[in-house]
């Protein structure tokens, strides 16, 4: 396929921009403590009833202007994923370009209540999946144009579609497999939970927490969520506890009988720590968490690869320019020869 001068210049300009915007070591793998005002979510699987209110309201909130699912061309439309041949209700089975938050269920045997199958009885649990907003996110470290950024005050990992050129390095780098891509669109974007950043900027907070009726998902400052998680692990199964609902610092509470927890807060240390924390009554590997994810900071892995991207792009740019010059000379020579034969 022939390339004209205009297309070549556009490619060269884009490649040059990528080269100059490539991350430095400091940008790719930032170090430092959790910001005092960093916000996140604590999800307690022992309280989740699988009502999927979080999923429905996540889509509604993020289909509004500023939301992670909003597009001008589909303004006012909520991207439901209907079962094939039954367009009645939203039924996604995984995270996708139309679904930022999904509830899944685990069952071992005939379990109907959260429990530990290792103790001989059946086990059952729901789990809520979406972006974990890592303290040192691999997706941010590999993005060569800073389309993904970790906000310095809230710690929320946000996405700017105007910067993205679709390399999809973020999808490969994320150890949790979170980012999705709009393959079906002519002008696609990367899609992931941004913790309802557009609502937080207006004084609101994550829709999945605001509309959770049981307090399974609560929003707040990460330091407060960590303390709340540790308090729950210290509780004795069978006693009653007043669980916060919607927000960890709110006044609304619900009295519930304490279930038996796995003695671990997932997200405190995994992948260097995350701002989405988990408690459960079933081991986390059974809930879909990859046991190979360690406490290792993932940008330490990805930097060895992404640091070579600028040099690779520069080499391709130089090679492309040289190839273009050569082909232009050959075309001119062939054209001159053709004119000579015609005369």
Automatic annotation (TrEMBL):
The protein's assembly and partners: Heterodimer of a large and a small subunit.
Q: Domain 4Fe-4S ferredoxin-type: where? A: 39-68, 122-153, 155-184
Q: Which Pfam families match?
A: Fer4_11
Q: What PANTHER family does this protein's entry cite?
A: FORMATE DEHYDROGENASE, NITRATE-INDUCIBLE, IRON-SULFUR SUBUNIT, HYDROGENASE-2 OPERON PROTEIN HYBA
Cellular component terms per the entry's GO annotation: cell envelope
Task: Point out the coiled-coil segments of this chain.
Answer: none
The alphabetized UniProt keywords are: 4Fe-4S, Iron, Iron-sulfur, Metal-binding, Repeat
Protein name (Swiss-Prot/TrEMBL): Hydrogenase 2 protein HybA
**Domain of life per record:** Bacteria
Q: Which organism is it from?
A: Desulfobulbus propionicus (strain ATCC 33891 / DSM 2032 / VKM B-1956 / 1pr3)
Query: A Gene Ontology molecular-function term?
Result: metal ion binding
Subcellular location field? Cell envelope
């Amino acid at each position: 396929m022939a390339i004209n001068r205009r297309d070549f210049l556009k490619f060269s300009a884009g490649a040059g921009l990528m080269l100059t915007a490539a991350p430095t070591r400091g940008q790719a793998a930032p170090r430092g403590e959790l910001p005092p005002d960093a916000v996140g979510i604590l999800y307690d699987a022992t309280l989740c009833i699988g009502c999927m209110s979080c999923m429905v309201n996540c889509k509604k909130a993020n289909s509004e202007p500023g939301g992670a699912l909003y597009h001008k061309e589909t303004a006012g439309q909520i991207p439901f994923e209907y079962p094939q041949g039954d367009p009645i209700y939203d039924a996604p089975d995984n995270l996708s370009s139309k679904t930022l938050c999904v509830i899944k269920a685990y069952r071992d045997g005939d379990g109907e209540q959260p429990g530990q199958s290792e103790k001989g009885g059946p086990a059952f649990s729901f789990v809520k999946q979406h972006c974990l907003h890592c303290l040192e996110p691999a997706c941010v470290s590999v993005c060569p144009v800073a389309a993904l950024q970790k906000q310095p005050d809230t710690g929320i990992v946000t996405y700017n579609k105007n910067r993205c050129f679709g390399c999809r390095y973020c999808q490969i780098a994320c150890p949790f497999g979170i980012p999705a891509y709009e393959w079906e669109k002519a002008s696609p974007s990367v899609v992931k939970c941004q913790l309802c950043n557009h609502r937080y900027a207006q004084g609101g907070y994550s829709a999945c927490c605001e509309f959770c009726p049981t307090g399974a998902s609560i929003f707040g400052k990460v330091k407060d969520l960590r303390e709340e998680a540790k308090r729950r692990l210290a509780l004795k199964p069978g006693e009653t506890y007043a669980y916060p609902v919607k927000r960890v610092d709110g006044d609304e509470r619900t009295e519930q009988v304490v279930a038996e927890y796995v003695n671990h807060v997932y997200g405190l240390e995994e992948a260097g720590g995350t701002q989405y924390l988990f408690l459960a009554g079933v081991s986390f590997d059974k809930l879909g968490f990859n046991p190979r994810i360690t406490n290792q900071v993932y940008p330490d892995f990805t930097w060895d690869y992404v640091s070579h991207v600028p040099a690779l792009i520069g080499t391709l740019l130089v090679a492309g320019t040289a190839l273009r010059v050569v082909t232009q000379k050959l075309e001119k020579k062939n054209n001159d020869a053709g004119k000579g034969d015609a005369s």
